[in-house]
Design goal:
By secondary structure, this protein is α/β, with parallel strands linked by helices. It is 44% helix and 16% strand. It has a six-stranded parallel beta sheet with strand order 2-1-3-4-5-6, with helices on both faces. Helix 3 packs across helix 4. The protein is globular, with a radius of gyration of 15 Å. This is Dienelactone hydrolase.
Length: 200
């Protein structure tokens, strides 16, 4: 059974992350949650982005890789928002251990993180149809989703793109009232349990 690694957004380890960790644990999976801010959380994205910038990408990647290496077992990486890119990067660094990657709020083509998608590893993207951050990514490059799909499929992995109605970027987090979408969050959690069980 694969170990699950959770990589939060710039808002930190909020309820949406802990709820998913609890659901996975209840299903019998071991879960490790990377906490880049040592327990601190943020209520808005600019504050979280500033804290992330203060730590630096290299330091965040080093912590994430150390956490994955410390598991010493096959893993599924699930990342939220910016954490999705971290999940992709960690899987690329440890291709023999990676069993699946889930990117919530949108993924990023591998060229932008200077890495290669691990061979045969499935990838899933989960976004809402009007997610402002995902829309911003597509304005930057309309082919962003297609590039990521090519990365996964050219490496022999199965690519799945799941779009939910609504506009919540962190739609799985009950503590973010403006974004939380309970029905979609429930469906997402069910899909995560199914995915981890299938690839693990």
């Amino acid at each position: 059974m694969a170990h699950v690694l959770l990589f939060p957004s710039v808002l930190g380890v909020r309820q949406g992350i802990t709820d998913l960790a609890d659901a996975l644990t209840d299903a019998g999976h071991d879960v490790t949650t990377l906490d880049p801010f040592d327990g601190e959380t943020f209520d808005d994205y600019p504050s979280g982005m500033a804290a992330t910038k203060a730590i630096g990408d290299e330091a965040l990647q080093a912590r994430a890789l150390a956490a994955a290496q410390g598991v010493d077992a096959p893993f599924v990486a699930i990342g939220f928002s910016v954490g999705a890119a971290t999940a992709e990067w960690v899987a690329a660094q440890l291709p023999e251990a990676a069993r699946g990657v889930v990117m919530v709020g949108g993924g990023i083509p591998m060229r932008f993180i200077e890495a290669t998608w691990p061979s045969g590893v499935p990838g899933q993207v989960h976004v809402t149809s009007e997610d402002p951050f995902h829309e911003e990514d597509k304005q930057f490059d309309p082919m962003v989703d297609e590039y990521l799909q090519d990365d996964v499929e050219q490496a022999g992995g199965e690519y799945t793109f799941v779009e939910y109605q609504g506009s919540g970027h962190s739609f799985t987090d009950p503590s973010l009232r403006a974004e939380y979408q309970p029905a979609e969050a429930q469906i997402f959690t069910r899909r995560m349990l199914e995915f981890v069980a299938a690839v693990g």
